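Q: Convert this sequence to structure tokens.
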Amino acid sequence: MSGKSDAALRALARRYLAWLGERGAALSGDAAERLLADMAWTASVGRSHFAHRAAVVFADADSLRARLQAVAEGGAASPGVAQDGAVAAAAAAYEAGGTVPLASLFAGETRRRISIPGYPFQRRRHWIRMG
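A:
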């Protein structure tokens, strides 16, 4: 996940937590694995990546919730579940601001883009001075 500010990154983590809450029972069994993999794919390759970043590495819905909660509270996502050296390296490089070929983490898989939480844009008023 990424945001243009730390506040936007935390807000996005809260949106993902709400998204998970809305899926409830769908987050168990094989269907959960597919849904979470599609969510990760969409977030990785279907979104822009900004300066404030959190690499949220997870094994299941519960570990995803825990890491999102940490980000939402302003902490680190603690990607300690990364068993694969490539995933751990990609997570570290991503958080450091590097360009990471995220699609390669899904090599050999068939993923689909799904509807996931949108970016939490700041609401600002802009006045135009006339005359």
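The longest strand covers residues 2-3.
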